[in-house]
Specification:
alpha/beta; 10 helices; five-stranded parallel beta sheet; 7 strands; 2 domains; globular; two-stranded antiparallel sheet; about 270 residues
C-alpha cells in the first residue's frame, strides 16, 4: 500500500538478460496500466509509438535508434538483446489497451556517454586479460566517471518521468539500474515507487562494486576490495566469452562458482 497522498508508481525491475526481457513482456501482457515508461532515449518515443501503431517495422525502429545515438552495430545489438521481448510485445499491448501511452525516459546525451564508457570498459577488460596485475587507478577512474554520469542520468530520468507520470493513476516504469536512488528521488517528488521483481538474479562482481561505490564513494573503497572485485569480474568474463548466450553464461557462472552473500565482491542477489 502506498503512503496516503502520494501516487504509487510500479517499477518493473529488468536486467541485461533476455530471460528478464521475456518475463517482463509476459508481466506487461497480463496487467493493465495507463502509461508505460521504457528505459530508452527519450528522443525515441515518437518512433516507438509509430512501431506500436505498426507504421514502421522493428528493423526501422532499431535503425532510428542507431541514427539517434550514432552507436555502432555491436552496441545496438546489446540493447536489442536486452529489450527484444519487450519491443516485440508493444503492438499487442496497444491492441489490448488502445489508450495506453508509452514514453521513453533516458537522456540521450547520457545514454550515448554511457555507451562510450562501456567501450572504455571493454578496452580495460582486454588489457587486464593480457597484463600482469590489476591497474587499480584505471578502474577507479572509470568507476568514478560511471558514478558521475549515473548521477546526471538519474536526475534527468526523474525529471522526465515525474513531469508526465502525475497525469496517470496507473503507471509502470521499466528500470534496469540500482533501484534505491530512484525510489528516494521519486519520493522527494511526491511518488511512491513499488518495485516488482520478476526473478532472482545474482549480480556480477563488477555490479556489486558499482553499488558499493554508489553508496560509499569510490574514494572509500580500498585497493584490496577493488582488486578482489575486478579479479572476480574477469573470471566472470571467462564464462561470457566462452558462450554465445549471455543468459547461459551467467547461469553457468552462478552454478559453478556458487556466489556467496558473505563475500561482498563475489556476488549479490536481486532482490
Amino acid at each position: 500500500m502506498g503512503v496516503v497522498g502520494l501516487l504509487t508508481v510500479l517499477s518493473l525491475i529488468i536486467t541485461r538478460f533476455s530471460k528478464a526481457s521475456s518475463m517482463a513482456a509476459a508481466w506487461l501482457s497480463r496487467k493493465r496500466y495507463q502509461a508505460l515508461f521504457l528505459d530508452l532515449p527519450e528522443d525515441l518515443t515518437s518512433f516507438v509509438r509509430k512501431y506500436m501503431g505498426e507504421e514502421i517495422s522493428e528493423v526501422e525502429l532499431w535503425r532510428s535508434y542507431g541514427y539517434l545515438t550514432g552507436l555502432q552495430e555491436p552496441f545496438i545489438n546489446v540493447m536489442r538483446y536486452r529489450m527484444n521481448h519487450i519491443i516485440d510485445v508493444l503492438p499487442r499491448l496497444k491492441y489490448k489497451m488502445p489508450e495506453l501511452e508509452v514514453y521513453c525516459y533516458l537522456d540521450l546525451k547520457c545514454h550515448i556517454e554511457a555507451s562510450r564508457l562501456s567501450e572504455k570498459l571493454l578496452l580495460l577488460e582486454t588489457r587486464e586479460r593480457v597484463r600482469k596485475g590489476i591497474k587499480i587507478s584505471e578502474w577507479r577512474e572509470l568507476m568514478h566517471d560511471e558514478k558521475e554520469l549515473a548521477r546526471v542520468g538519474l536526475r534527468r530520468t526523474i525529471e522526465n518521468i515525474s513531469e508526465v507520470v502525475k497525469k496517470y493513476s496507473k503507471s509502470t516504469v521499466l528500470y534496469g539500474s540500482f533501484i534505491k536512488p530512484f525510489k528516494d528521488c521519486m519520493k522527494s517528488k511526491g511518488f511512491i515507487v513499488e518495485p516488482i521483481y520478476l526473478q532472482h538474479y545474482w549480480r556480477s562482481p563488477l555490479d556489486i562494486l558499482r553499488i558499493m561505490i554508489w553508496i560509499r564513494g569510490v574514494e572509500y573503497i580500498q585497493d584490496e576490495m577493488f582488486t578482489r572485485c575486478v579479479k572476480g569480474y574477469l573470471k566472470y568474463l571467462d564464462y561470457v566469452i566462452s558462450s554465445d548466450d549471455i543468459d547461459v553464461a551467467h547461469d553457468k557462472w552462478v552454478s559453478e562458482t556458487k556466489p556467496d552473500h558473505s563475500s561482498p565482491c563475489n556476488a549479490g542477489v536481486l532482490p
